[in-house]
Design goal:
This protein has 479 residues and is α/β, with parallel strands linked by helices. The chain folds into 3 domains: 7-134, Alpha-helical ferredoxin (Fumarate Reductase Iron-sulfur Protein, Chain B, domain 2), CATH 1.10.1060; 150-246 and 404-474, FAD/NAD(P)-binding domain, CATH 3.50.50; 250-401, FAD/NAD(P)-binding domain (3-Layer(bba) Sandwich). 33% of the residues lie in helices and 17% in strands. The protein contains 18 helices and 18 strands. It has helices spanning 7-11, 23-26, 39-46, 56-59, 67-76, 79-87, 93-99, 121-134, 158-169, 186-189, 198-210, 227-232, 264-272, 299-310, 331-339, 408-412, 442-445, 450-474, and strands at 19-20, 34-36, 150-154, 173-177, 214-216, 236-241, 247-248, 261-263, 291-295, 315-320, 343-346, 348-355, 361-374, 380-384, 390-392, 396-399, 403-404, 437-439. The strands form 5 sheets. Strands 5-4-3-6-18 form a 5-stranded parallel β-sheet. Helix 3 (39-46) packs across helix 5 (67-76), helix 7 (93-99) packs antiparallel against helix 8 and helix 13 (264-272) crosses helix 14. The longest helix has 25 residues, at 450-474. 49% of the residues are buried.
Length: 479
């Protein structure tokens, strides 16, 4: 076992920076930007961990990963032990290690971060997951007794995949229904290749199959079959709904009907799922002007503007109505964007989209903003500065200002309680008011992070297990 450093020695070690592609070359393609840690960097970073007796980092993790435990295994050189600790709670570590906002969750709670920089928990998680693949350490779930009870998972995003994996490990026959032609949900259509390579996603979905989970694509629940038909005619005893929030919202400003205006959802889906950047090799084109403005300040906005840059936008602007401090996007993504030549137009709010005589976008009028008192979100409210309007000359505008759930499930499931914005109402265990129907992810939240959706899937699996165990007991199937 590797000798442990004392606390004074640990705090002297600087946080290790991952290897990254050079900005000038990476904007010419969709290769992954961050290359993560090698074994030496990972070992050095792991030795910074203070191994707290009461690990606040685990409390900051929505799925409760034993962070202190897996980092200790890295220090010991026991990578198989490290991945076992992670996978006990997290079925998608190679994904969360790349896209999870650790800086506002586990790393925000890291004790080292009180006086120094927090331990790079996300990068260490990614290292262990990639090491598992490179050294073929994946073992799947140990055999368990099968209950013979069928569970339907609707939607193959992070909530659905997590719920499916946890239920398979508990001995249930699980089928995942996906409306699109490829599984993965927002992980596939929403997150660009340069942040999450599709080979990583494909591998995790294949591993789900090794656990006995069946994935059915091109199956739109609410049209191909309703929730009630799954329960009453298809033999499923419980249904988990994790269909996400794929319907875009718009600002409602003049000019949104012009050619060259996209929602970020449509734009990213065309590229990430349909391969529009490879047109005409792929069937789906995407129009990209030389100058592009993306409206928004979250991770989706950053994904859209960085994608536009890679599609040939010489001038790519991110228009955000608050300051950098209020941006919800990950700091790493903002840094990467600036390195790639993205111009941040902060404290600027769009007022209208300007068109030419042919009906195409010719500019975006923006108004300068100032920050006033905090609003309901706790962030300072942006207020317009009179007479500060100007037109930004762009040929395309992409709006990344939020999404809401698609209403198909709600409209085709009688009696299902629905709240504001179309979200399905659940209790703290992801149970709905309909017997045997559970919901998680953006369908119950209205828009959140991958890891929060996974936490919902995890809680739902536990609740479904309890619900079906009670049914078995009631029917005399168990003592």
């Amino acid at each position: 076992m590797t000798p442990r450093l004392n606390p004074k020695e640990r705090v002297r070690i600087k946080r290790q920076r991952p290897r990254e592609g050079l900005p000038a070359s990476r904007v010419r393609g969709f290769e992954e930007v961050s290359h993560g840690y090698g074994e030496f960097l990972a070992s050095s970073e792991a030795r910074r961990c203070l191994e707290c007796r009461d690990p606040a980092c685990t409390r900051g993790c929505p799925v409760g990963v034993d962070i202190r435990g897996f980092i200790g295994k890295i220090v010991d050189g026991d990578m198989a032990g490290a991945i076992a600790r992670i996978r006990a709670c997290n079925f998608l570590p190679a994904i969360t290690g790349r896209v999870c906002p650790q800086e506002s969750q586990c790393e925000a709670a890291c004790v080292m971060g009180r006086k120094f920089t927090p331990v790079a928990i996300g990068l260490l998680e990614r290292f262990v997951a990639d090491y598992e693949t490179e050294h073929r350490l994946f073992r799947g779930a140990p055999p368990v007794a099968r209950h013979g009870q069928k569970v339907a998972i609707v939607g193959s995003g992070p909530a659905g995949l997590t719920c499916a994996a946890d239920l398979a490990r508990r001995g249930y026959d699980v089928t995942v229904f996906e409306a699109l032609h490829a599984a993965g949900g927002v992980l596939r259509y929403g997150i660009p290749e340069f942040r999450l390579p599709k080979r990583i996603l494909d591998l995790e979905i294949a591993r789900l199959g090794q656990m006995g989970v069946t994935v059915v694509t091109n199956f739109l629940v609410g049209r191909t079959a309703t929730v009630d038909e799954l329960l009453d005619g298809w033999g499923f005893e419980a249904v988990f709904l994790g269909t996400g929030a794929g319907a875009p919202t718009f600002l409602g400003i003049p000019g949104e009907g012009l050619n060259g205006v996209y929602s970020a959802n449509e734009f990213l889906t065309r590229v990430n799922l349909m391969g529009a950047h490879r047109f005409p090799e792929s069937d789906t084109p995407v129009y990209m002007a030389r100058s592009v403005a993306v409206i928004g300040g979250g991770n989706t906005a950053l994904d859209a503007v960085r994608t536009a840059r890679r599609l040939g936008a010489a001038d790519a602007y991110l228009v955000y109505r608050r300051s950098r401090a209020e941006m919800p996007a990950r700091k790493e993504e903002v840094r990467h964007a600036e390195e790639e030549g993205i111009e941040l137009m902060l404290l600027a709010s769009p007022t209208r989209i300007v068109g030419d005589e042919q009906g195409w976008v010719a500019g975006l009028e923006v108004q300068r903003m100032k920050l006033g008192a905090p609003d309901g979100s706790g962030r300072r409210r942006p207020e317009p500065v009179a007479g500060s309007e100007r037109v930004l000359p762009v040929g395309a505008v992409i709006e990344a200002v939020g999404q809401r759930p698609n209403p198909i499930i709600q409209k085709t499931t009688p009696g299902l309680a629905v709240g504001p914005g179309g979200v399905v109402v659940t209790d703290e265990h992801q149970r709905t008011n309909r017997d045997g129907v559970f919901v998680g992810g953006d369908l119950s939240r209205g828009g959140a992070t991958v890891i929060l959706a996974m936490g919902d899937g995890q809680r739902a699996a536990l609740a479904i297990d309890g619900y079906l165990a009670e049914k078995r007991t009631r029917h005399g199937d168990e003592p």
